[in-house]
Amino acid sequence: MKLISSPSLEILKPEIGQKLCGMNGDQRYGISTFLVHLHELFGSFQLTTMVDTFPTMTQAAVVHTSLRDRDGGKSLGRQIRERFHAAQPDALIVFSSSRNDHRALFQALAASCAPRLMIGCSSAGEFTSAASGEGLTCAVALRSSEMVFSAGLGRGITADHQTVAQQLVAGFRGLHRPEYRYRTALILIDALAGHTESLVEDLTRLTAGTYQFVGGGAGDDARFQQTHVFYGTEAYTDAAVALEILSHKPIGIGVRHGWQPASPAFRVTAADAMRLASLNAVPAAEVFEEHAESTGQSFDRADPLPFFLHNVLGIKTGDGHKVRVPLGVDAAGCVACAAEIPVGATAHIMSTDLGSAAAAAAGAARDALQQVQGRKPAVALFFDCVATRLRLGKEFGIELESLATELGRAQYAGFNTYGQIARAEGQFSGFHNCTAVVCVIPE
Prior knowledge:
This protein is an alpha+beta fold.
């Protein structure tokens, strides 16, 4: 690190750097604190050129590649080095198509740009402010002098989701760092393991409601067979990862879905986790068949997904509906859903259109921007359902355009998820399907 125009200080020696940066060399100061320490060490001096080694705000780099495996990792790392002028990222978030050899990709990425922390998940469609499609890998790199990042891994969701929540929270620093007013955790999870709604509740309980949570369920390019989360350079199933973000500035989270009730109200009379057995004591498949007939739609029990993409289930809550995507019908007439269905809940069959989907993304972005209280966004994360991409096809780009319009010049990245996570004050909270979730991180 060079300091220019000082007659007695040309190069800051490593041992002095340790005094300024802490014994572990990890901590970076804001520029005012940095100058105070220089004055204590050297007395008065002139400094006419400031360098970006010690950023005074949060910096973000959004990158993507269509290359796969090792080549994909090297490409992402090279782009991040260029954007950060070879500086080391504090945290790196990666959304990667399941078509990759994940270990090869992440080992090459780690070797190329050496992030201090790295998490991510497999995906079912990827997008940034510069590209959108399937089979891509995109990443968000963060550097900040005003935020503290920690990462955690929890394994064994199917057997014990409470233990997984405890494993994640064990790595959170904010419970012992009261100087950071704003506490957020990005959660990425193998949603095919189930229990995601319960896990979000566990996390909220274990953190005494002092954290907001945002994220989504990993994907596998709409095959619904096996999904992975990434921690360091390793990939895991039946697991969840967390990136804790402690900040002196608010991080905004917006949640909208754009679906409206299209049927009378039903009572959920029988369900087992993600398996809906009956509504109003009528087999669930029969209820959907009757709705299809009354609305002039086609419903095929052997291939129901085309119908389900346009006719989801909405679970009534105090402030609207939580959307649940039906996925298939079994021989008993039960409907498999993408998230848990609570027995006794009031539910509607829901409908939407392209305009409503685009408006939901725009509304979620506006809500998130409002929460950062006029600060300039460094980056936005966007989590949207794979069912939305499948339903809209090429018109999914219109939803991304509406998001970009609200964000203005701010860059963004995200992926099509198997469910969306959002728990924040004043927002529609929990685990969702077919819902647009936007997280804005300010500079």
